[in-house]
Amino acid sequence: MTTGKPLRVSEFDYDLPAELIAQHPLPRRDDSRMMLVERASGRVSHRSFRDLPAFFAAGDLLVLNDTRVLPARAWGEKAGMKIEFLFVRELDPGLWETLCRPARKLGPADRVRFAPGFEAFVEAAGDEGKRVLRFDRPDVRAELGRIGFAPLPPYIKRRREDLGRRAEDLERYQTVFARKEGAVAAPTAGLHFTPEVLTALKAKGVLVRRVTLEVGLATFQPVRVQNVDEHRMLEESYAVPLAAAHDINDAKGDGRPVTAVGTTVVRALESACHEGVVRAGRRATSLFIQPGYEFRAVDRLLTNFHLPRSTLLMLVSAFAGRGLVMKAYREAVRERYRFFSYGDCMLIL
Predict the structure, then answer these.
(1) DSSP SS3 for 83
(2) pLDDT band at 5 (very low <50, low <70, confident <90, very high)
(3) Ordered DSSP codes for 89-107
(4) Of 70, 73, 172, 269, which is the most exposed, with the fewest CB atoms less than 10 Å away?
(5) For residue 25, cis peptide bond before it (omega within 30 degrees of 0)
(6) What is the rounded distance in angstroms from the CA atom of residue 1 to the CA atom of residue 43?
């Protein structure tokens, strides 16, 4: 809960040259730069992501989001017109909630052809491009694996059905530790990790644990209000395994830091925390973390650089303070960091 004068969404704006928005991944995942932000001193310095293990000691906890991204972007055809779809979630076998564009051309009962033998009709139409599609077959995930593309955000520019980039994006817009398919966007702070970095962390005695938050529309929904308090988050599903909850609670009890890899892990752990204890189980959350929020589970945060005016930037500002975060972002622009999903990262201590 915030106190005092209501925060305006405009207070989370910043100037970003378009050329700093990363359009492609670096040759190696751990080639990324890592800005180090120290909350206690307000100091900002510059490191490499490969330096990450140096900031951990034996017994520290590192928590990953092991959700797996669906190849959820596909093009259908209606009467010779191409329509782009994002498959958001499965409602029932063969029944999917999607977003499409141009949506005005697709109404209830219209049929869409994605591939030979893979067609659907529009069962329901909603606002902002939402369409519920009923397919003639239940194995939609398998077909998406065959024809789908990585659901890259719109600021990463790709030509329609760019087959030359399809394989690279399907590999690189996915963490090396992804397990449980269900996300329509990557937990991007995890994209920097390689097996070698994970091995180095474990060799130091760092406890690496996993939770799952199925990244959906809530993570990237635009903020359309002027006052931060008026924004309402959509729900996303998350799961905290019993062993992970036990180890996190032990670490908190012993004073060992818990580091979240990404804002999705923050939302999962903070949503699962009740009266100072992280509860295991699978639930849904619409938690909106903004300045004024008191963190109960997470002590440190590894995160990418986020879009202006976004709920993700508000979460990071709640964790480190808006003034320090905006100072760090201005320095990142001056130092020519790479921004957003395929960009560099920031470790907040």
Answers:
(1) strand
(2) confident
(3) EEEETTEEEEEEESGGG--
(4) 172
(5) no
(6) 27
Residues 6+ apart with CB under 8 A from 219: 185, 236, 263, 264, 311, 312
The strand ranges marked E within the chain are 33-38, 43-48, 61-65, 67-69, 73-78, 81-92, 95-101, 111-115, 118-125, 130-135, 180-183, 207-213, 236-240, 258-261, 273-274, 277-278, 281-285, 300-304, 345-348
Residue 57 has pLDDT above 50, yes or no: yes
Tokens of 349: 């201590």
* Residues 112, 83 contacting (CB under 8 angstroms): yes
* Burial of 338 (C-beta count, 10 Å sphere; 0-12/13-18/19+): buried
Q: How far is CA 291 from each of CA 6, 133, 226, 287, 303, rounded to the nearest angstrom?
A: 10, 39, 15, 13, 17
Mean pLDDT over the full length of the chain: 95
The torsion angles phi and psi of 303, rounded to 5 degrees, stand at -150, 155
Sign of CA dihedral 16, 348, 150, 223: negative
pLDDT digits (tens, 9 = 90+) for 110-162: 999 999 999 999 999 998 899 999 999 999 999 999 999 999 999 999 877 67
Using CA atoms, how far apart are residues 164 and 273, in angstroms rounded to an integer? 44
pLDDT tier, 2 (very low <50, low <70, confident <90, very high otherwise) = very low
4 pLDDT band (50/70/90 cuts)?
Answer: low
For the segment 329-334, the average pLDDT, to the nearest whole number, is: 98
Q: Using DSSP, state whether 336 is helix, strand or coil.
A: coil
Task: Look at strands 33-38 and 81-92 and give their pairing.
Answer: unpaired
Average pLDDT over residues 295-315: 98
Look up the pTM and report it.
Answer: 0.95
Contact 269, 315 (CB under 8 A): no
In terms of Cα–Cα distance, which of 68, 63, 99, 69 is closest to 84?
Answer: 99
Amino acid, res. 105: K
Q: Which of 174, 200, 202, 211 is nearest to 298 (CA)?
A: 211
